[in-house]
Amino acid sequence: MNDTSTSPAVKPAQRKLMRRFVLVDGIAVLFLALVAAVVLAIDALLLLFACVLFAVLLYELSAILCRRFGWNRKLALVVVVLALLLIIGLGGWAMAPQIAEQSTELAQQIPQSLQRLRQMVENQPLLARIAADLPDARQLIGSMQQFVPNAGLFFGGVLGALGNVVIIVFVGIYFALSPRQYKQGIVKLVPQGKRERAVQVMDDIGDTLARWLIGKSLSMLIVGAATAGALTLLGVPLGLILGIIAGLLDFIPYIGPIMAGVPAVLIALSISPDLALYTVLLFLGIQTVEGYVLQPLVEARAVEIPPALTIVMQLVFGTLFGFAGIALATPLTAMLMVLVDKLYVEDILGDRQAE
Questions:
Q1: Is the pLDDT of residue 310 over 90?
Q2: Arithmetic mean of pLDDT, 200-214
Q3: How far from 154 is each of 77, 161, 164, 313, CA to CA, in Å?
Q4: How far apart are CA 249 and CA 242, in angstroms?
Q5: Residue 208 CB coordination number (10 Å)
């Protein structure tokens, strides 16, 4: 009697408990599947983010032309793309022989400079023990060659890098042609009551990235031109290609200038220690001007990222995603800061003082 009387009450409770277990297990499985999908497709996602960055840059440049001359946005975008192609094409055509020659010479001089540095260190008794633990030039160059093919976003090797550039350019142009279409597709995934706020947050992210990209592009151009001109005046060989490398690597704060300065200092050291010292002082001076003049101007119009946070995020993204993670760490951090500020600080905590 007791079993039959209590069983109807026990079964619904057991069913409710089973449903909860199934729901929790299902959510956990979906979450793990999502994490696994992101990890497996991280290279493609980073490449997609690079395409979005290029699209944001094109859109902002075309928007500037629209505000200045009152043009149609698509016409302004066509003008921007043609102008960039013309500048890159004419610049490449004019400097291609010199760049190719200096690139070949740079690849030959770096191992020789490393070997000379090793010999100079070995002549110093206090540094001889350190030199014994250093790899020789061939091993170091081999390690660098193994690292470079894995430094791409999606495809590896030199051809893969060119493929990444082609994908970023064409996909970025398509994104910039019709950004509303892609934005509406993302907004449809958000509940209807939150769609207006989602549009505001996406607009804030786009504005922040656009201002940061415009400022960073100008900074890269100034750093590259100043480095190439100053190295040439100092008498350091291969000033043009070293300046181009410095300008491109300036996209990566803090770590990029160090990577750009190493080959320049090694080449200068192969000529004389005094020239190497002047080269070190040159890079320190350029980075000081950029850090205290150019970077504050960029952050004043975009988002202020603390230096410690930038370095930490570079280490995190670099550990997780390799060189591509380091290169894209700063814009990713800027985007995450906007998301935290809008969705957590303002919406959840209710702190809207920034507005």
A1: no
A2: 91
A3: 27, 8, 7, 21
A4: 10
A5: 20
Backbone angles phi, psi at 76, to 5 degrees: -65, -40
Residue 65 CA to residue 62 CA, distance in Å, equals 5
Give the per-residue pLDDT at 150.
Answer: 47
* Cα gap 67→89, rounded to integer Å: 27
Give residue 58's pLDDT.
93
State pLDDT tens for residues 269-282: 888 888 989 999 99
Structure tokens given for 133: 């633990």
pLDDT at 311 > cutoff 90: no
Q: Which residues of 70-104 are buried (b: 16+ CB within 10 A; e: fewer)?
A: eeeeeebbeebbeeeeeeeeeeeeeeeeeeeebee
**Can you list the pairs that 132-140 forms with residues at least 24 positions away whose Cβ atoms lie under 8 Å?**
137/111, 137/112, 138/111, 140/111, 140/114
Instruction: Give CA–CA dist 236/95, Å, rounded.
Output: 18
| Stated pTM of the model | 0.76
Residue pair 81/175 in contact by the 8 Å Cβ criterion:
no
Residues 247-266, buried b or exposed e (16+ Cβ, 10 A)? bebbbbbebbbeebbebbbb
* Mean pLDDT for all residues in the chain: 80
Query: Cα separation of 251 and 220, whole Å?
Result: 7
